[in-house]
Amino acid sequence: MSPESLVDIFREALSVIVIIVSMIIIPGLIIGLVVAVFQAATSINEQTLSFLPRLLTTLFALMFLGHTLIQTMVDFFIEMVNMIPQVIG
Fold it and tell me: What is the model's pTM?
């Protein structure tokens, strides 16, 4: 196994991780920003007002994007299994 192929596998694994995590985190960050602007505009300093919408948004993102996330991981896994002969040989 050459170092270049190991670097390519590692790079692809990192890109899959970034895609999966960003699909979950970005909607929560957007809702958190909207709630923070609302709190700053109204001077409400309630911690649960910030936490609950982000939690619900993350759960909804997992519910609606779960199939896509699993499919991305399965595609990566199948590609890695198919590369075993090239890496070993």
Answer: 0.79
